[in-house]
């Protein structure tokens, strides 16, 4: 295993319910370190570009509207096998299928409003981190 970095987003359903700290406790208790963090309001153009891979999916418009419905917390998580580890801690996309103890099982409202984003592979992690953060903002 290698030390990796992955992009995490705490989504608007979770910031609205004041769950930032509870969610970050799951990451930290799970062995990941938060090495960059900022709370922002995404623009429509930014959300559309970030989720561009899903542009053709039927839920794309709703997803973009949801992601700009309130502030998000953008984070870079670091640790051994961080990309897969983060996805384990998050749980399945649909909270109905998420394992006990995962963020989505405990906190997600729906398959769309599922509280967190996490990169899915080394290439997407690198792209997604560079989309939101300058190198000087990552402090390991
Ligand atoms: P993940 O976030 O687990 O990597 P995807 O990349 O497949 O999942 O989807 C990106 C996001 O789009 C999901 O986290 C969720 O917010 C939303 N989404 C995915 N599938 C659906 C769906 N069937 N209906 C509504 N929203 C969805
Ligand atoms: Mg995904």
From TrEMBL:
Names of required cofactors: Mg(2+)
Catalytic reaction equation(s): a 2'-deoxyribonucleoside 5'-diphosphate + ATP = a 2'-deoxyribonucleoside 5'-triphosphate + ADP; a ribonucleoside 5'-diphosphate + ATP = a ribonucleoside 5'-triphosphate + ADP
Record key words, sorted: ATP-binding, Cytoplasm, Kinase, Magnesium, Metal-binding, Nucleotide metabolism, Nucleotide-binding, Phosphoprotein, Transferase
Residue span(s) of domain Nucleoside diphosphate kinase-like: 3-140
SUPFAM superfamilies: Nucleoside diphosphate kinase, NDK
Subcellular compartments: Cytoplasm
Enzyme Commission number, as recorded: 2.7.4.6
GO biological process: CTP biosynthetic process; GTP biosynthetic process; UTP biosynthetic process
Database matches in Pfam families: NDK
Catalytic residues as annotated in Swiss-Prot or TrEMBL: 117 (pros-phosphohistidine intermediate)
InterPro entries the record matches: NDK-like_dom (IPR034907), NDK-like_dom_sf (IPR036850), Nucleoside_diP_kinase (IPR001564), Nucleoside_diP_kinase_AS (IPR023005)
Domain of life (superkingdom): Bacteria
Residues that, per the record, bind ATP: 11, 59, 87, 93, 104, 114
Sample GO molecular function, one term: ATP binding
GO cellular component: cytoplasm
Similarity annotation: Belongs to the NDK family.
General function of this protein: Major role in the synthesis of nucleoside triphosphates other than ATP. The ATP gamma phosphate is transferred to the NDP beta phosphate via a ping-pong mechanism, using a phosphorylated active-site intermediate.
Subunit record text: Homotetramer.
Protein name: Nucleoside diphosphate kinase
